[in-house]
Every structure is written in structure tokens, then in C-alpha cells.
Amino acid sequence: MHAGPVSGRLPLLPCVVLYWFLSMQQTSAYFGLTGKEPLTLLPSAGLSMGPVAEKAHLKQCEILKLSRKQKRLCRREPGLADVLKDSVHLGLVQCQYQFRNERWNCSLEGRTNLLKRGFKETAFLYAISSAALMHSLAKACSSGRMERCTCDDSPDLKNKEAWQWGVCGDNLKYSVKFLKNFLGQKKVSKDLRARVDMHNTNVGIKAVKSGLKTTCKCHGVSGSCAVRTCWKQLSPFHETGKLLKHKYETAVEVYSITNDATGEPELASPRKVNYSFKNHIPRSTDLVYMEASPNFCRPSKYSAGTAGRTCSKETNCDSICCGRGYNTQTRMVRFSCHCQVHWCCYVKCQQCVQEEEIYTCKK
Ligand SMILES: *[C@@H]1O[C@H](CO)[C@@H](O)[C@H](O)[C@H]1NC(C)=O
Ligand SMILES: *[C@@H]1O[C@H](CO)[C@@H](O)[C@H](O)[C@H]1NC(C)=O
Questions:
Q1: Is the CB of 273 inside a 6 Å radius of any atom of ligand 1?
Q2: Of the ligands numbered here, which is closest to the C-alpha atom of 277?
Q3: In testing the pocket of ligand 1, which one of 274, 275, 277 has its CB within 8 Å of the most ligand atoms?
Q4: Closest Cα to atom 4, ligand 1: which residue?
Q5: Do residues 286 and 253 lie in contact, with contact meaning Cβ atoms separated by under 8 Å?
Q6: In what helix (H) or strand (E) does residue 112 lie, and over which residues does it extend?
Q7: Where in the sequence of the chain do the CATH 3.30.2460.20 domains occur?
Q8: Nearest CA to 82 among 15, 152, 14, 31?
């Protein structure tokens, strides 16, 4: 069942995302873009696009490590480079938050090597990256930042107003279609790792889709619901992150089998049935992996190890520090105390100082 390093194509999506992230520091200064600009800076309508903005958008597509087809899609859709940028930030922050108490803390160090393997962590990276891209894309669609997004299922004005800050069904359909095209999912690869990567990418997309909720608001007289406005809204991304973290914890090990009927390779996982093992096709909502993860304790090509990591004495120092023990430092923390409310209307506090202990893993 143990699958060694598997050769094949480089995983596309997270690499794109990684390179983009790494190059952002320089390029954002160069373009003067931070991703927070009013969107008129990168107008989606071709006619109103000034030569400078147009150049910037095309240049951004060039800098991204994209396939030829992805570059074409990027050039054609002026909002896309921004969406990619947003999604990198979203995915990275969420990954680091979800793994803040694990030995592997989702740092960028060693990531390129991780992405070439078939660990649970690799699975999570694929899923969180595609989920973040899907989320950013759907948000960009519903806020009108993507030229080709439509929302045909809400033609009247009331719904139009609603979908300005929600997501309509078509946004999501468009986003899935666009993403699958962008990631080149039409080709069915025979390479096991490519299949695993694709599977996990789709788990991420599904996780975002499953978080879509319909919310309604009543406008009737005295609470009656005579007029209702409804819209669809994605769950906050941290909920998607939490869901994917759970899937990481319950990820399923897979290997490749040949389907007797079609002769095509497919993913299978062993499951115990009546004291013997049978092949099962993993569910499309399960994260899958091919090999046991390293322990991430010591510096390796996959991580910096856990020396110097801060931990919590009560809960996770033993596990994060891999039994090497931890150093204890004290520092003084200031906080407000003895607060009194003065009539009217302010609160007066004193400054207190307290000692706080910080624990960091030994080398
Ligand atoms: C497991 O064994 C029981 C009793 O021997 C049998 O009825 C059942 O069909 C078996 N299940 C499978 C999935 O083979
Ligand atoms: C992850 O851990 C390393 C030490 O192993 C540390 O240098 C780094 O700051 C941590 N990153 C985050 C995001 O916590």
C-alpha cells in the first residue's frame, strides 16, 4: 500500500499559488497594487480600460506560473489575476490558522517538496487552495468583478439587489465550470498522483459548494412576511477551513486499481468487511492520500521542524515538541485593570502588569 515518490507532472494549482505569493512582495510594489484597491483600477470592461491598467493586468498574467491555456484565460478575464491574488491570501491564512496547533504549521518552507508527495498535508493543500480559489471566484462573480459571470436566475430588481452581496446559483455554476476548465480537469490522467491531486482539488470545490445557504429577509408590516428577499450566500471561509481540517483528520489512504469493466485505473481504498479487506471507491467528499506523513519534528525538505515553536504547556507541548521538552520564558504583559465607570460617560482604568510564561520547543 505504500507508494513511494511518484513522478509525473508538477502539481499545478498550489504551485501557481505559491509562486504568485512569493512574487507578490516585489510585484505589488512594482504595480502599486495591494488587492485592496477599488475595483475601478482593473475595470473589467475592455473599452474603459486605460492602457496602464491593461498592461498591468496582462503583465500580472505573464508573471503567474500558468500553463498556456491558463494564461489565455487570465488575459481574457481581467478580474482573474486579482481573484488569484485574493485566493492565495485566503488559503494561506486559513491553512496556517487550522494548523496552528500541529507539528506542521503550514509554513511556506518546504512546500514545493510537500506538493510533490502524496501525504495528508499535500491533500489538504490542494483542497484548501482550490476551495479558496472557488470562494474568491464566486465572491468576485457576485460582486460584479468578473465580466463573464451571470446571474440569470434573478432577473427582477429586488433579487438583483440581493445578489450584489450574496451569491446566486449561476455564479456558483459558472465558478465551478470556469475552475474545472482553468485547472484542466477534462483530461483523465493515468498517473496515480495526478488523480489523487485532482480528487483533492475537487473535494475543496465541493466543500465550498456545500456551504452555500439561502438566506431570506422579511419586509412585511409588523413582522409579517408579505415580501421576502432571498439570496444565496457562501459560508464564511473559516467554516470551509474547519470542514477541510476535519477531512484531513479522517483522510482515506488510497492506491490504484484497474477497473475490470472499463480497463481504466481508478482510486481505491481497502475497507474491512467480514474480516477481510475489500476495495472501495473513496467518496468524492473524502480527502485521499497515498503515503504516511513524516513526523515534521526535525528540519527536513518538508518543514523547518518544531524547534522554537511556541506551544501550550497544558495541551500540546509534548506533542508539538516531539518529546524533546520546552524552554520556559517569562515576559511582562500590560493590561487594563481596576476599571471604574464614571458618570457620564467614560471608563477609567489602571494599567496592571502581569507575568506571563511562554513555552518554546527545545532543539
Ligand atoms: C458478511 O457475513 C455475513 C454472514 O456470514 C453475510 O450475511 C454478509 O452478506 C457478509 N457481508 C458481506 C458484505 O460480504
Ligand atoms: C511555523 O513554525 C516555524 C518553526 O518551525 C516558525 O518559524 C514559523 O514562524 C511558524 N509559522 C507560523 C505561520 O506559525
A1: yes
A2: 1
A3: 274
A4: 274
A5: no
A6: helix 111-114
A7: 306-363
A8: 31
pLDDT in tens, 302-359: 999 999 999 999 999 999 999 999 999 999 999 999 998 888 788 889 999 999 999 9
Kindly give the distance from the C-alpha atom of residue 313 to the centroid of ligand 2, in angstroms, as a whole number: 18
Cα distances from 177 to residues 35, 149, 173, 273, 291, in angstroms, run: 24, 11, 6, 38, 31
Query: What residues form DSSP beta bridges with 269?
Result: 280
Q: Does domain 306-363 have CATH number 3.30.70.1050?
A: no
Residue 154, amino acid: S
| 12-38 pLDDT, tens digit each | 333 333 333 333 333 333 333 333 322
Ligand 1, atom 11: nearest CA belongs to which residue? 274
- Which ligand is the nearest neighbour of the Cα of 278? 1
State in Å: Cα 305 to ligand 2 middle: 9
